[in-house]
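May I ask you to comment on the folded chain given beneath this request?
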Amino acid sequence: MTYEPVIGLEVHIELQTQSKMFCACPVVDSVSAEPNTAVCPTCAGHPGTLPVVNEQAVEYALRVAMALECVINPISIFARKNYFYPDIPKGYQISQYEQPLAVNGKITVETSQGEKVIRIRRVHLEEDTGKLTHMGTEWTTEEADKRINEKAGKPENRSVREPKKGYSLVDLNRAGVPLLEIVTEPDFRSAEEVRSYAERLRALVRYLDVNSGDLEKGVMRIEPNISVRRVGATELGTKVEIKNLNSFRALERGVAYEIKRHIAILKAGGRVAQETVGWDEARQTTFSQRSKEDAHDYRYFPEPDLPPLVISKAWMDSIRDELPELPWQVYRRFVDEYGLKPAEAWGLAAEKAAAAYFESVLQAGSSGVRAVYAWVTGELLSLLNSAGKGFESSPISPKELAALLGLMAEGKINQQTGKAVLAEMFESGKPAAAIVAEKGLTQVSDADLLSKLVAETLNENPGEVASYRAGKVTVANWLFGQVMRKAGGRANPQMVRAELERQLG
């Protein structure tokens, strides 16, 4: 019997506003800020406090919804989502449910199997919860499977980690931060599709300047709902939600693990428990956290302290007019206009600053696309990574990199010298031409001088010359290196190789 996965995604994105969703508390870094220092009676849930909607958060949400080609609802309603957990001080979360901000969008993903359109069911606004830090607690793993299959007389399908006593700390700095939730239809059929969607969504929110996309800090949280069913069946299987995935790698591996686990349970005659699980990176397995709630368990009802959210057509039009070129539009242009391969184009388009830098270098000089791509994504990116910098803070401007590439294209310096000059530019901030002039790095193209250097090298290494003439042609590369060393690395490499071949012949 063959099974297929059916997966939907919920993605929570913190909006980079200055203040929280319903109060004036500042939005602070949840990692570096002192705990519980950005809290007021409203976001702490004190009785008698009244929420006020953050206009900037609504605008940011509209940017995302429009970029996802959603239908914007001119009137949306905030609701109370009731549940009791230590990280939600009011005992309920202000969210949207029956009348969300936007519906019926789409996004196209690319995988090894080609393009696929993923439908967006809804995009809605809500407030974030606080942050829990578990101290000395090890959650029971896979308890739900064990329990339900023991009742059914089936063997357990997962090992169980015994819980240890511990405690949890609550930080309410994050409570009330504007949160955008994007819910897809169950259109995914593989872990690869899930990852591609998440990468494109991260690129989008960064292009729109509404979120940093820093998964490790939890400002973008991806929660897949995974089920499997027999191929050909129309009814959905029991779903399991994976929480707290903080990297694309963890997302892809966690989804793949759950797919495999569900299929194994069903083939053994067991039943999958509806639950929420976490991902253990060290063990590369999921572990049970709690049973999974259904929507009716939250007892949604309209928020009595907030009026309907009304979006005027004029406001929507002004936001739509200001939308930038989107990452998949940049990607397509890089493929169609510049001839980049799909993986190369997306590697640049996924990062707004990298794409802009690449195009600026092209526009500032006359070097070809391949040379610019190679130096931007190779030597320069390596220097930036080593320094912990991004393209937006590169000490080498696109104009100066274009000038360096121009020196190489004109034959004034060779590539080896170019790499050394680039490193010096990165450290000192000096332009390429100044460094070349100061250090006398101009490429040597004097035919007589190069002929003399080649002859000296061959005379000094008769054994290697004999080996070459006896058929060991790879020795020519070693001899080439010796000539370049004599020239201080500044010799024209094409001329050296040609002269070396002539004299060896």
About this structure: Residues 457 and 483 are 6 Å apart (CA to CA). The chain has a mean pLDDT of 89. The chain has 16 helices and 16 strands. The radius of gyration is 30 Å.
